[in-house]
Predict the 3D structure of the following.
Amino acid sequence: MIKAIFYSKFDTIEGPKVVHQVPDGAIVPSPTAPSQPPFLTFSDVSFFVIPRQELCGNLLQVCTNGYRILGYPICMKSVRYDRNEFIFNFCIVLAEEEDFSTYKSVVQKVADLMHGLEEQNGFLSRDFSKSGEGKVYSLCEMLMEDLNNYCECMIPIDELNTLNIKLFPIYPSPPAVKAWQVPLFTLRYQAFMDENWDLTMQRIVPHINGVNSVRIISVLADTDFSLTCRALRHLLYYGCLFILDIFSFSAIYAPTAQFSPTIGSDEAMQLECARYVNLRFAPHPPTGPSSPLPPTLIPTPSANSSTNGSGTAHLSSSLTDPTPSLVREESRFDAEEIWPLLGTEETPSTTTSPASTNTLHKPAIVDGASLVELYASLKQGQSVKQWYAAHSRSLANIDIRRFITFGVIKGFLYRVHKYACATSQPAPPPRASPFTPTALSSRATTGNNTPYAVSSVSEDAPISAVARRESSRERAGSVVSGGRSGNGNGSAGAPSAFWEEEDEIVEDEVLGKYLDGTHCFDQVCTELEMSERELTARLKRYPWEVLILHR
Amino acid sequence: MSSIARPPDPCLVAIILIVRSRTGPRLVFHYPPNPLSESRIKTTTKGGRRVSRTRTRSKNTDSSSSSESGLSSDEDEDERETQSHAGGSSVLAGRRASNFGLDDHLPAAASPAGGETQRPASLGSTRGSSARKRAAGTDPDPDDDAGTASDRPDDGPGRSRPPWESLLGVPGSVWEKLLSPSRSWHKRRFEVGINDLALIGWPVFVREDGSWRKQRRKKQKKPRAEWDGGELGHNDSADEGKKDEQFVTSPDLGASVASIAESLTSPTDSKRGSASGRPGKSDESLDPEDKDHMTMFNVVFVVDPPLLEYSMRVKEIYENIIKKFAKALKWEQARTDYVWKESQHILQVRRRARETKTSTHNLYSELISQSSLARAIYTVYSSISASKIASVSLSPDVSISLQIPPLTSTPYLTGPMDKAYPGLWLTTADSATPVDDPSADENNVPHQVLAKHFALLLLDSEAAIVKDIEASGGTLAPALAHYIRCSKPTKSFAQISVSSGIPLPHIQMLSSHLVYWRRARAIPPIHQRDTYIVSPNCDLSKLEIATIAYQEAFPTYPSLPKMLSTLSGTPRPYSNFIPSKDHKEIYFTILAWLLRGGWVTQLRTFARIKVSPEIKMAVEMALRKEEVERYLSKGNSNSISVDEDDDSDSDDEHDDANSSSSSSLASHGSGDETPMPNRVDPHAQLRSSHKLLDQSTALRLSSFILSPHRASPLESRWLDEIFSRFPDNPRPVQGDENASPDITPNDSLALHKKYWPVFLKYFNGYDALEKISVRENLKRKLVWQVLMRLGLVTGPLGAMDLGAREQVLVGVRHW
């Protein structure tokens, strides 16, 4: 909020002088507003408002008495002035602690405009109106009122000049976008995109869906990669995007310290999560114009049969995938229907299966506390696949990708990335020698907790086929969200294993550059266009020992 | 290895010292000589960017003749104009104008004079500042004139300006005017901005009586005590007025402090001292200045903070550096007229340098070697701008240490969209959390006493630190050295206190000293059963360098990448990685090394109590039953008239509650808010809790108890119910959570019943369960047995086969 605006000039007789001030009496006592105590002592700051010539043409600010004064003094030289020069300054007064960054440009713009006006017709120097009257005063008044009330103004000054100002918030500039990152819209781009947009932007926008990586987006949209990054960065700057990681079933996620304050205690967030991940509310498949994506999530019939259709408009706007708006068919629905249903009980209930209590003769559901438990059971060293296998019943009606994504977006989950680091030791024989520390944590207990073992997990989980497809060559559409189709054991066994026969696709030197421990698997896979499975296998054939760090 | 450098940038650009005496303000010294190779200040006299005179004097070093001539010609004009104008107005003004021309110590007679003659006249006319007036008023003093004249014997026209006379492309005279504010800024934050630069100072003015310090005998305070506080360097809680004089002297690791304490000399003494002390270092040219006195000094720090971090950065450097440094100078000024003497000395050297046309470089090296004040400013600049601790000695007696305290840890893991500080210790285990120290304020006082259950992790080798300490001497040194030798990262302060015999408060004081001065960090004690993971915030770009350092430190052990690789994967207790008992010590040392560099962090366990629908139903049933009973008993005692109002009330509510049991939220809201809060009888509480239950859905969903030690009445009932369902024990009569049931501790099955009340307060999701054994002084194994029984699944060993009714904890592990 602007506290005051004043126009000051150097008077050849009186020295620095406040000509107009809004509100009246804010800077210097005014006979017309005797009750208004001045915010500050003008004489304390006059050396700043009307500084020495050397400092004119600079943005100056000074703090006094809890106020911050922003000014842009201008000194004009011309024979038509007394002493051949005219120094003036339009100053904005803010509270000292207030963020002033947005007002810097305002002050500068006003100064420039006034400079021009003065040059054209002596707008300022011929303004002999009394304090509180005249054009210049009303300009100050309107400027302050409009900026405070509407954050913008459009003040016509004469037939040629108009003062147009809009306050823009300043955001931190976003970091560079990486090829292996996955953008997701925080809002529906359809609502604000128009045909005047940048061409690259128009082309990439339909492919941003929280699944495609930046590289895939640029391939699908057939746009230049660096332009794609710049366009995305632009969207990022305005907070239109989240940046996620490439979801796959071999990825590892674990809770962060934000767990307890967010999902752990916030029941509203638990509800939001349920709405977001419940397959019952799964949105229609995205219908972007040229999207080659197969339909992602088809609501399972069982979930839909009992209730009314797919609709709720409650999908949080901040979290929806870019989907066409859902028509809400029913105005109300039972609060309990938000919670995903438990799957049918195949095995004697595992210890972690929540809500195994059917005492209330309600369909067994995954309630808020159970969602929290599910999140809490994600941990370092455990891939999503393994986690899913352990909680398949609870997760039966939950979109896994959205479930994970929700946690990442809300900041209570983080992706544990893998990094490869080659040592100068020759590669060990396939079974690690017993004395290395790696061997200490070897598969004796739960199997696959050594980094090496990740790829050698026995593929017993029903989703393995999907997982394989996920992690196989990163083709558009292979990273199907959730991949629920594999829930039956339909597609097991068929694909993959192709890499074994192939020749070495990636040379050792090329690969070697990535093995210094600073490149995560996602990056390597994206840049070398291979799947994580291929990469892991390839690393085993690397002539030197490769250590894998999880971070 | 030490990733303790402050991640945020101090943004320091330059330090300027301005003093003002009767002859006007002077830019005495600035460092570095050429801040910002490219000036960001446009020195145009006309507005806009299209001005004929627009010469961005990008580098103050290149005072090329063309630019100089351009300047002087313009300003000659100015001067003529102004002088004619001034002459017309009054003699005094004319005189003043010329006087200021003299006053200004810029050699090019014309250049500053143009601006000066004009501006001071105007300033003088409007500004009410007494100092200003005095400066003007004393003009006719012949001594003064002589003084200034002799001050600048070489002020001849046509001389080119030495490069150091301007700063950031703006002539020194401009800075002098700009940075010598009116007295209203006395001991306040003086903040001005020019484009992207912020100039911040803490100006100090001489008192009306000519002294620099209030006579303070009224507050009978032992100065000694003050300095003890100052020795620690970080206990001065902002400005409480009374601590005014106490600038922070923490000579590195508590070195020389005591000397200052005796130095409470009276101002008159100091004046005399100044008079007598001066001839020692000044030559005859200074004599005329004898009568001149400094009226103000202002050490101005020029910073260029990023726009979005402006207020934070400015505040940081102001609170930690600017104010403390200026206070120290004020102290010395009051004591020995330090600032003024040093300023005169510096000016004198500069004058000589101008005569001999010394190069900037030589001038600065001469100044820094000759003047302790110049050296102090140089030290502050170079250390602070490198995010280090600045150890400054103003005189043999007085030295201070200044720093912007670095960020040592963060609980937040930055995402791909945020600015990251890799290498920062990622943890929620800051040394004082609410449960750690229940008496402590919730709002973290920056330097409170370290919690006694933490341990000290040295950030350098023990030998190196001890050596530094002993080198610096000081009162604390022997105690510090002794403590450091006793300290171990595996033992908490309390344990060290017991084993070494050093009283706990001393240990806490010494540790916080070490922590504040970046020699150590307070961590939860390292334990082999605790779990450590590769920190998600570790700085892998440093892996290569760190691997070499690690190799030197532990040549015969697995390499750093190997170690990190081992700690990747499923988290498991650290003991799993220790090959044998003999290796324990060295593996602890390795772990300490890894923690120090932010490579690993402890994975801690947090838990909450989950309340299942059965519990809720059972409590609901019980409550209803009680209500019925109460209703019946009330019927019996109908004759008591006092209760009547209450009764009718509760009747209504009861009906209300029944009718609204189908979860109509509206009636619910109106029902329970208004009448309730004042009553304290248990029935009322039960009634209110009963009403909470009316949300039928809530009954059928499980939920968490967020803070068990501050449980609501209903939550207490749930807890009681949970407790009563633990098997293998006689049903407790009334389930007060604090009453520990009467069971023999040896009964292992009932262990969790015994410890449930003790542990309860940790099940809030914010207190790591690892704390329990340390804080409650229990065997770690026992604690985890109990926790396991309560349903906590940790590690790879699956869940124990236990009844569901005991599985009440939901645990989550993070740093």
